[in-house]
Amino acid sequence: MQWQHAIKNGLVYSDGHFISANIYVKAGKIAAITDANLGQAETETDASGLYVLPGLIDTHVHSRDPHATYKEDFYHSTLAAAMGGITAIFEMPNTNPSISSVAHLQQQIVNLESKANVDFALWGLCLGDLNNQSLSDLNDAGVVAFKFFWGYAIDKKSHLLAYQYKSGDPNLIAPLADGEVYDIFRAVKPTGKQLAIHAENSQLMSRFSQQIKQEGRCDYQALLDGRPDLVEAATISLAIQFAKSSGTPLHILHLTSKAGMDLIRQAQLDGVSITAETCPHYLFLTNEDFSRVGNEMKVYPPIKYQTDQDALWQGIADGTITSICSDHAPHTQEEKQGALFEVPAGMCGIETQVPLMLNAVNEGRLSLADVVGLMSENPAHIYHIYPKKGAIAVGSDADFTLVDMTKEKILSRDALHSKSKVMAYDGMKVKGLPVGTIVRGVTVVKDGELINDLQGKFFKPIK
Ligand code: DOR
Ligand code: ZN
Question: In the chain, what percentage of residues exceed pLDDT 70?
């Protein structure tokens, strides 16, 4: 048969709007988009009444593999991704070993390819003077971009993040001083890739947190007082200066605050190369939800106030926010129990992000085309994988997310496919669901059922 897969009668995303069309796939690539009938295919999908989106991409995932596979592993995170309508993910580099050298990158590709249910790319990790000289080789070896955990101490041996830092600890490398951070910007510049930063100022944070501990406070307000918007804005502000001076494209990870948003918007107006992402938990939760949700919604940087959430939605409306991703960061339910200040930050998000965003479309908060922009087209452009990914065009990978905008579901922690069941939306009713996940022409998930597993492959940026 001439065609591998035909997706027929869907409303197909094309340049910001939707057209009625059939899509024909050959050897994993889109071969034709047409209103004509070009005949039978080995696999046929009837997409009547469904929207056919370019495969949605999650650019911010911590699968904990290898490192803490009791919390999550790559098979489960990519299964959850496929179940949630995601066709490709970018895996974060703070694994053990960390993705800070070419040898580790190559090891990681082999490790993850044996467990991948969706396609994946890999972030490279910046450690300052320790690996600035490796960034060019890491780039040549195919990392999709570079991440720097600004403000974090790291373990001397494993380079894992230290969440509780006391100065003078002989096992830790202290948070880097500004000069060393600036050299990271300079080292990333020749690669042409984004330098993505976790933006929290460690000195402010530790000072504020100390004061709060002395006062004996450990409620959610205390968490926010220890990591206020100033903590995020101070680092973003300096990062903008560094990006301006070095010419390195800057990406702000998991933006949470109005203060940060205002700085990014102004920098974009000033012509600085700066992009920004936020995550559904910052768009759908505020400090007010803590009394209901509890520790499960503890993430870093923390979820802030309604005014911040409103500013993030404004940033989506005016294009300041360029992408949305999950920051899927699983911990076990046992680990999340205890005093707020002691439990780890992070929650599952890979499987719920598309339903939450589609529900927001049904509520009139943004359009379906906006979702495609934020979760497929823009990330594909920013990370140099367009039009291989992020487009429904002849020659592009045949990655599709099929969505039914009328279908309803109650989100449930027990229904998650991650190893961890830590999530903040248990019991929430959503309307608009992914009902098909197709990766390079192969149906991975259809109507919530796993059809073909282990289809995922590593991919590199185009340039
Ligand atoms: O909440 C978070 N969890 N924020 C981070 O930056 C790291 C992540 C994790 O790896 O647990
Ligand atoms: Zn993260």
Answer: 100
CA of 378 to the centre of ligand 1 (A): 23
Q: What tokens appear for 88 in the block?
A: 């490709």
| Residues belonging to the chain | 463
* DSSP conformational letter for 67: T
Q: What is 28-54 written as a DSSP string?
A: TEEEEEESS----EEEEEE-TT-EEEE
Report helix angle 258-269 to 306-318, nearest 10: 20
Q: Is the CB of 300 within 6 Å of ligand 1?
A: yes
Q: Of the residues 277, 282, 299, 350, which should be mutated to test ligand 1's pocket, given the most ligand atoms within 8 Å of the CB? A: 299
Whether the full predicted model's pTM is greater than 0.90, yes or no, is: yes
Q: Which helix (H) or strand (E) holds 74?
A: helix 74-83
| Alpha helical stretches, state H, 155-228 | 178-188, 202-214, 220-226
Does residue 345's CB lie within 6 angstroms of at least one atom of ligand 1? yes
Q: pLDDT digits over 6-55, tens only?
A: 999 999 999 899 999 999 999 999 999 999 999 999 999 999 999 999 99
Closest atom, ligand 1, to C-alpha of 330: 11
Is the beta carbon of 253 within 6 A of some atom in ligand 1?
no
Rounded Cα gap, residues 312 and 369, in angstroms: 18
> 351 pLDDT band (50/70/90 cuts)?
very high
Once rounded to an integer, what is the mean pLDDT over residues 177-194?
98
198 lines ligand 1 (CB under 6 A): yes
- Write the pLDDT tens digit of every residue in 151-172: 999 999 999 999 888 889 999 9
Residue of 369, 322, 266 whose CA lies nearest to 54: 369
Query: Tokens at residue 145, please?
Result: 């971009």
Token pair 């379906």 in the structure block, residue: 368
Side-chain half-sphere of 454: how many Cα atoms within 13 Å?
4
What are the residues whose beta carbons fall under 8 Å from the beta carbon of 266, sequence distance 6 or more? none
pLDDT 10s digits, 363-418: 999 999 999 999 999 999 999 999 999 999 999 999 999 999 999 999 999 999 99
pLDDT (mean) for 324-331: 98
Tell how far the Cα of 318 is from the centroid of ligand 1, in angstroms. 28
Domains along the chain with CATH numbers: 55-387 (3.20.20.140)
Which of ligand 1's atoms lies nearest the C-alpha of 149? 6
DSSP 3-state of 24? strand
**What's the CA gap between 256 and 306, in Å, rounded?**
11
C-alpha 279/C-alpha 304 separation (Å) is 13
Query: 299 CB under 6 A from ligand 1?
Result: yes
